[in-house]
Amino acid sequence: MSVDKDTVKKIARLARLDVPEERQEQIAGELNAILSWIEELGEVDTSAVEPLASVTGHSLPLRTDKITDGNKVDDILANAPEQASGFFVVPKVVE
Amino acid sequence: MSNLVAGQTGEWEVVIGMEVHAQVTSEAKLFSGSSTTFGAGPNENVSLVDAAMPGMLPVINEACVRQAVKTGLGIKAEINLYSVFDRKNYFYADLPQGYQISQFKHPIVGEGVLTIELADGTTHDIGIERIHLEQDAGKSLHDQHPSKSYIDLNRSGVALMEIVSRPDLRSSEQAGAYIKKLRSILRYLGTCDGNMEEGSLRADVNVSVRRPGQALGTRTETKNLNSVRFIMQAIDYEVERQIEILENGGKIDQETRLFDTSTGTTRQMRSKEDAHDYRYFPDPDLLPLQLTQDFVEEIKAELPELPDEIKARMVSDYGLSSYDASVLTEERETAGFYEAASKGRDRKLVANWMSSELFGALNKAGKSLAESPVSPEGLGALVDLISDGTISGRIAKDVFAEMFETGRPASDIIEEKGLKQVSDSGAIEALIDQVLAENQDKVAEYRGGKDKLFGFFVGQTMKLSGGQANPGMVNQLLKDKLRG
User: Fold this and answer.
1) CA–CA distance from B25 to each of A65, B71, B297 (Å)?
2) Alpha-carbon torsion angle B388, B390, B394, B400, nearest 10
């Protein structure tokens, strides 16, 4: 797998990262270096190994259906840059 | 019945698939302990998990898992004992995590089927591809401020089941029947309240058209339809729009569209530049969900009788028509009311009284069955009084109207107003004698061969009795008297 400049542009946009034009080539190179390093793992034969979902051997813990949380509007909004009447206020996002 | 749509240049086949989002009935959210109640103040039902504060971890609600399994069993689907939660990545102001926790590769429920019945009596099996569990997003209000949107995260993290159909639907009528049937099953199961106005059930509709027998056409997806009528309108509009484009040599763009409820039309929603690239990957915060067969069997044992089964029983055991049985089983409450009202009685007569008088009166009064002033037992008692000849069916309608008005039992009303049917032959004969004496000219005409006048004599006798004479006896005694 290899990453070119256009791919960098695309994934930066999807992640809402501002990557300037002049940095894109360089980042493509860095990503390719990382990817080729990871691809070394492909040398190991894992055809007989089950995919690993967890190293702890635990199963997914389940919660009972009880209301134990909520009613903390002040905490929820504490870091909001702008708020009004209990709502987060953000730049208009409707199309 | 053909579902083909005629265009200018020939016939078209419509292909529809639906993705229905059904809010899981539960106290708390899918991955947090905050409430799912509708109508709370802004951001009151929000925990730090729902607001995606750093360091918070999701813990799955067992009840939501049970509900999804139950729903799967209700549509005779395969239950996947191993399922995985994935992150579906996108940015929107009402999605604080920046991703929705959903299930992509390994959903909890696999292939199932739902049978729909149309107005013409035909039935169609609609394939269900999968059901997966996922989080709902928050709500954005765009009309509070000229340049700002207001965000309420109360819905954020509420459990949804996404129920994905195969592209097996062929008309807006079928799509309407599908959503109604699905809603009915969910409500019987108690896994979703089916309240479309409150957004508990909403549908995305995929529509394409093709020439019969040809490969599938390009589809469009119309999002977030929250009523049966809107679903059908949106489909009809899309079909017309797509046929017009294709017949004029254009091509359909695969795109997401929005339905405008005021005009009944759809319009393009998202620019294609960002076309769905959700970059799904397994959520590292959640281990795979592993169920045991025992867990599934336990839920299977709790399944209530479902509408198709009840309907079959009503037709075979009670002798109801397929249509009556469909009407009575569409809602769980209706079937329950009917079962209680008809138990140990003339099942067919109770069915008739429910579908004509009771539903008629409820409709007129704008009331739901739950608000009915006449209880199942009350209606049953009225039917008993008709069956044993205490009152005639004609009088029963008046009694029913009064029961509906006042909520009083039938027997009280009959007693108080002296409405008991007259089955005393002496009394009826006296009435007949009076009618015949007052209409001697007509008696002569009748005896002269004008048979049609018989109905007139019956009518006059019934009228004279104030509707209380036993109609069967009036008929018999009149025949005897007129012959003599």
Assistant:
1) 11, 11, 21
2) -90
Q: What tokens does A71 get?
A: 């009613």
Read off the pLDDT of residues B452-478 as tens digits, 9 standing for 90 and up.
Answer: 899 999 999 988 888 888 888 888 899
Which of B45, B60, B141 has the CB atom closest to A63's CB atom? B60
ipTM confidence score: 0.88
Whether residue B344 sits in one domain with residue B210: no
SS3 B216: coil
Question: A88: closest CA among B138, B89, B158?
Answer: B138
Determine the structural domain holding residue B11 and report its residue range. Answer: 5-298
In the listed set B240, B264, B298, which residue is the last one of a domain according to the structure? Answer: B298
C-alpha B175/C-alpha B197 separation (Å) is 18
Indicate if B136 and B279 belong to the same structural domain: yes
Number of domains in chain B: 3
Give yes or no: residues B146 and B265 share one domain: yes
Task: For residues B14 and B118, state if they share a domain.
Answer: yes
End-to-end CA distance of chain B: 57
Q: Is B190 on the interface with A (CB under 8 A)?
A: no
Specify whether B225 is located in the same domain as B134: yes
| pTM greater than 0.90 | no
B149 and A65 within 8 Å at the Cβ level: the answer is no
**DSSP assignment, residue B41?**
P
Most distant CA atoms of chain B, gap in Å: 100
